[in-house]
Amino acid sequence: MKKLGLILIVALFTTVAFAAELTEPILLTSIGQSADLSMAKAMLKKAGCDSAKLVVDKLATAAKVPEGGTVAMVVGASNKGLGEARISVDTEIARAKTLIEAAKKAKAKILLIHVGGKERRGGQSEAICKAVADAADVLVVKKDGDTDSFFANIAKANKKPYHGFVKIPEGTKELATAFGKK
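Given the sequence above, the corresponding structure tokens read:
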């Protein structure tokens, strides 16, 4: 009986991991207008994602959401980036929610990427991170930005895969795994 329970648990975790596998094409955008978007783009390319199937748009709209693909949102507010774009945190959260709704309609997965570490947490970033984390199908997070387990706890509560990493090359490997390219 114990053996059957263990088999069922392993099967459940395997099914959850398989169901969350991400696919191309990818729409990559920044929610918070941080420069972390460039790092995420480089990581996705190094992870083996096809450059021809990667659209990078820091102010992406719902019209760009790929049918059956992935909407990758790099979360974390930058006062400088928000100021240059002349948008508020509330505007960014509203855009994120619009992208999330469009992704659901397009049967696209939502990938949260947080590479900004502790600098992109707290303050204005917190509401942005929460809005996207709650809807994310997969979370890839630099651990120094999750010392309080904020992202890990949301992923656990929502039964979604969480890939934590310490250094960028590890994060790249985690993205490769999430896209089935390892």
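The longest helix spans residues 2-19. Try to locate this feature in the token string yourself.
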